[in-house]
Write a structure and sequence with these properties.
Layout (H helix, E strand, L loop, with lengths): L5 H29 L3 H9 L4 E4 L4 E3 H6 L3 E7 L6 H15 L9 E6 L7 H10 L6 E6 L1 H10 L7 H5 L7 E6 L4 E6 L4 H10 L3 H11 L5
Parallel strand pairs: 3-4, 4-5
Antiparallel strand pairs: 1-2, 1-5, 3-6, 6-7
Helix pairs in contact: 4-8, 8-9
């Protein structure tokens, strides 16, 4: 090892002190993280409590009013879409009919617009009526920046920025979950309605959810 100058030794000492300070900080940081409940971590990372308006004109908070303590499905659509949105909505109407005994009672369906400037509550209400949407399914709009925050928090994004920027390329997945049980999954919105309904119900069965979710991760027509 070469002989070190006084300046080099002082520099090494300062670096060692900085590393030591960092290590000393770790227990408190770990303690702060560990003190946060897993349910709260999920809420903070994925469920921004933004203000939305339903197709009935009611103002609601996303987490407090729509997700907290509830069993839900969530997807994104926009009324002027001519491609997959009408097909997905029609397919989810079939799912709603299959689960009719639960939708609106202990299972709640939410569709959030990707075009909030155009999709006013009045426009969304007409869209829901046109597609024969039943009770327990709400269409939601809000500020564009809040909609984008939700879209990203809920994972409805593409890795390719160019593809992600075009709403015509939006993912047609349906996210479903049981918030108090912290069970969440996703399924293609155009899959067989019976299979979609089956996957949704897995999130309400904690004893079998982990084993059965694997099946629902496989795309089926």
């Amino acid at each position: 090892m070469k002989n070190l100058s006084r300046r080099e030794l002082l520099g090494m000492g300062a670096a060692a002190a900085a590393v030591g300070a960092g290590l000393l900080a770790l227990p408190s940081e770990k303690k702060a993280w560990a003190s946060t409940l897993p349910r709260d971590l999920i809420r903070e990372d994925h469920f921004p409590n933004v203000l939305l308006t339903t197709h009935e004109g009611e103002q609601v908070r996303f987490y407090d009013d729509l997700v907290k303590d509830k069993f839900v499905t969530i997807n994104f659509v926009y009324t002027s879409c001519k491609a997959t949105c009408p097909l997905i909505t029609a397919n989810l109407v079939r799912v709603q009919k299959i689960l009719s005994e639960r939708v609106g009672r202990d299972l709640f369906m939410y569709s959030i617009t990707l075009d909030p400037k155009r999709d006013t509550p009045k426009v969304l209400k007409k869209y829901a009526k046109t597609h024969g949407v039943g009770k327990g399914w709400q269409f939601l709009t809000g500020k564009p920046e809040d909609i984008e925050l939700l879209r990203r928090g809920l994972g409805f994004t593409w890795a390719d920025p160019a593809r992600d920027a075009n709403k015509d390329n939006h993912t047609g997945n349906l996210r479903y979950g049981n918030e108090p049980l912290m069970l969440w999954g996703a399924v293609p919105g155009l899959s067989n309605p019976s299979w979609v309904a089956k996957c949704i119900l897995f999130a309400d069965q904690p004893k079998t959810a982990q084993a059965n979710q694997q099946e629902c991760c496989t795309v089926k027509a």
